[in-house]
Amino acid sequence: MAADLLAWTGLLAHPESAPRRWEPKKLRHRLFVVPATIARSGRRVVLHISDRHRWAATVVGAVLAMRGLPAPAG
User: Fold this and answer.
1) Of the candidates 23, 17, 47, 21, which has an alpha carbon nearest to the alpha carbon of residue 34?
2) HEC-encoded secondary structure of the chain
3) In principle, which of 23, 25, 30, 50 could form an S-S bond with 35, CB 3.0–4.6 Å?
4) Separation CA 62–CA 46 (nearest Å)
5) Once rounded to an integer, what is the mean pLDDT over residues 25-45?
6) 36 Cβ contact partners less than 8 Å away, ≥ 6 residues apart
7) For residue range 49-67, what is the model confidence (pLDDT) as tens digits?
8) Angle, in degrees to the nearest 10, between helices 56-67 and 2-13
9) Structural domain boundaries in the chain
10) What is the pLDDT of residues 2-21, one digit of tens each?
């Protein structure tokens, strides 16, 4: 199941970029280690990502792409 989640995340979050074709090990070592914190304020959830990390821009782009997807029907 984890491999399927990685594959779909790559397809949906990075439709036309290099991270889409990265292997799971490379994803873990580049994207899943970016320092971040989750903060809750009122009814909002805010993700604070460190801009000092080399791959932070890629993570921010992925988060924005995932937020732009339509909600699943059902």
Assistant:
1) 47
2) CHHHHHHHHHHHHCCCCHHHHCCHHHHHHHCCCCCEEEEEECCEEEEEECCCCCCHHHHHHHHHHHHCCCCCCC
3) 50
4) 15
5) 86
6) 47, 48, 49, 50, 59
7) 988 988 888 888 888 888 8
8) 90
9) 2-67
10) 878 777 777 777 767 666 67
